[in-house]
Structures are given as structure tokens and as C-alpha cells.
Amino acid sequence: MGRKSIMGGVRPKGLRRIQFDFEIDGVRFRPTLPWAPTPANLEQAQKLNARIKAQIEAETFVFSDVFPKFKGLRKLPGSVSAKSCGEVFGDFFRHEQARVARDDLAPVTLKSHRQILDHVWRPALGRLPFLAVQYSMMVKVADSHSWNKKTYNNAISALRRAFAFGYLDYPDRVDPATRLRSAKIGKKDRPRIDPFSIQDAEVFIAALHQDWGEAHGNYEEFRFFTGLRPSEEIALTVSDYDRVNGVLSVTKARVDGIDKDCTKTGEDRRIQLCPRATAILERQLQVRARLMEPHGIQHEPHLFLTNEGGPIPDVKYPYGRWERTLKRLRIRYRRPMWPATPPSVGT
User: Fold this and answer.
1) CATH 1.10.443.10 location in the chain
2) Alpha-carbon distance 70 to 33, whole Å?
3) pLDDT tens-place string over residues 9-59
4) Straight-line distance from the first to the last Cα atom of the chain, in angstroms, rounded to the nearest whole number
């Protein structure tokens, strides 16, 4: 059923506004615009009135495009109201879920976008008409948070992606999110490299073995002598280790319990292992054989396992053990995701 429109024309509404009068699907609307009723403005209003009528007849009229500050905008029927910002976010998530399903987007990226949009932007902008969201509104939300530069950039990036997706339906309009600028990350903003001394490293490695057993101790010790990221190390399989040549292939990662067939940087690496790293892996192969035998697990391909014989689920799993042992030793804290030792330790 097409829309029917009855245009009552335009007329002054006081000294500072012009009122429009029209009907859509049997509902009468009399919105105003903050234009002084001068002859020039009345002529412009008549032209706008004609465009509105044509759009109503063609069923392409979006109320918030023309009257974004109409008081009853949120109560309008779906046939004449634009999507809310929250609805566009929902469409964006569904599109990204489809991309994840066809292996075109990392699950962790979808999770990050959902967390940022739902916790930062949706509470402030979600109920507003999508096309009514202005640049100044976005800046106000961003500036209300005490973020460091990296967190700020992540929040801005997620919003820009969602708005770019939404504005694909409006190619003739300017996307205000494109004007948001990321903070510049300089050398002083990057984390300071803070390696363990060789003495502290050896004390810490011994304590990890003592506190958590050989399987976990090998996992932590191996990273000291290879510089692997935790997400790369927990994804290693037995076939990645070339025992004959002492070489390790790093081609994948495990993030949030999901295996990815690429590393964080997207580049595969082959590492020539030092004698210490090779010795750790040889010990670990014996440990995993002992762990798997009582459980009847013969097909598990992962190099590093939990004490129960299963794969390490995610990088958060060993964090608590790392922190507790460091605290017990009273050694200055370092995050386990960074290469733990200076190059001299791995030689």
C-alpha cells in the first residue's frame, strides 16, 4: 500500500519559525524549522515542501533527515522514521558475525567492536536517530572518558567502522565519524622495554617449575628463550617442531580459545632454536607423553598442555600463576605478554 500525502503548505509560526503541514498514511504532521519567515525563507520552504511531497509519494521520505529535532521523532512509526543508532549497531554486528562465519574477520575483532560499541557508544547515542548524530556529540562522548591514547583510538576506530557501514545506505550524505581523528602514538607513548636480568630470570623459572609443575614451568621457560607471544606459544603443535634441524615454525595463534591460522602480525616465522630452547622442548615432549597416557589422549597435537593433559585454553589461563610466583619472589612485575628477557639470555 503506497503512502498518501496531503500537503497543507507552509506558513509562519511566530517570528522565528516556519511550520510545515502534511499527512502521511493518515497521520498529520506539523513540524517546524528555525527559519525566520522572510520572503526568501518562505520561498525556500516551498521548494523543500515540494521535495518532501515527492519523497512521500515515492516512499523514500525519512522524517529525521529533514526534521532531526522534531520532538516526537522517537514515537514516529517505522515507515517514516530513520533507524536509531542502536539499530545500525545491531546491523553492523550481524554483518561482522557473517564475516566471522566465512573466515573474513577474526572473532576477537568482533568481540572488541561489540564491547566498545555496547559499553561506550550505545548508552550515549543508541536511542538517537542514526542520521541525527552529529560530530560534536561523538566528541563529547569521547572526551568524557579518561582514556589513554591506545584505548581512545580503539574506541574511535570501532565507531568509525560502524558509521561507515551505516552510511553506505546514504552515499549522498557526509559521515560525521570520518572527521574523528585518532591520537598520535609517539615513542614516549609505547611501553618501556623492561627485561628481566639473567639472574632474576633463572630464579623466576625455577620458582615457576616448583610452584606449578613441569608442564607449566616448561611453557613459561620456553618463552624466555624464544620471545614468542603467549597466543603463539599456546597454539604450537608437535608438527611445528622440526627436531632434526632444531627449527620451530610459528604460523598460528589462539585468541579467546579460538585457533587462528595466522599470527598476530599475519606473518609466518621459522625460528632457529638455541640449545636451551631445544632442551626445553625435548623435556616437554616427555612430559606431554606422560600427561596424555593416563587419560588415553593420543590425538592431542598441542606442544604445551595443562596439568590435566588438555590444551591451554587461552592466554589468561597462566596469568594468575605468573603473577602469584612473581609476588612470592618479590621481583618487579612484568606482563607475561612481552618478551621476558634481553637478547643475551637467548644466545
Assistant:
1) 198-346
2) 9
3) 788 888 889 999 888 777 888 899 999 999 999 999 998 988 888 877 766
4) 77
Cell numbers 597466543 correspond to: 231
Residues 28, 34, 38, 43: is their CA dihedral positive or negative?
A: negative
DSSP letter for each residue of 110-144: HHHHHHHIIIIIHHHHTTSBGGG--HHHHHHHHHT
β-pair type (269-272, 247-250) = antiparallel
Helical pair 85-101 and 107-116, crossing angle rounded to 10 deg: 170
Tens-digit pLDDT profile for residues 80-105: 556 789 989 999 999 999 999 998 88
pLDDT higher than threshold 60 for residue 138: yes
Using alpha carbons only, how large is the chain's radius of gyration in Å? 30
In DSSP notation, 140-180 reads HHHHTS---HHHHHHHHHHHHHHHHHHGGG-TTS--GGGG-
CATH 1.10.150.130 maps onto the chain at 85-183
* Integer angstrom CA distances of residue 286 from 7, 154, 209, 289, 291: 84, 43, 15, 5, 9
Quick one: cell of 307? 596439568
User: How far is 91 from 94, CA to CA, in rounded Å?
Assistant: 5
Residues, the chain, total? 347
CATH code: domain 198-346 is 1.10.443.10
Q: Is the pLDDT of residue 118 over 70?
A: yes
The pLDDT of residue 161: 97
C-alpha 281/C-alpha 278 separation (Å) is 5
**Is 0.90 topped by the overall pTM?**
no
- CB count, 10 Å around CB of 172? 5
Mean pLDDT of all residues in 241-256: 87
Closest residue by Cα to residue 240 from 204, 218, 268: 268
Q: What is the pLDDT of residue 49?
A: 87
Indicate the pLDDT class of residue 294, thresholds 50, 70 and 90.
low
* Torsion sign across C-alpha atoms 200, 201, 206, 207: positive
3-state secondary structure of 299: coil
CATH number of the domain located at residue range(s) 85-183 in this protein: 1.10.150.130
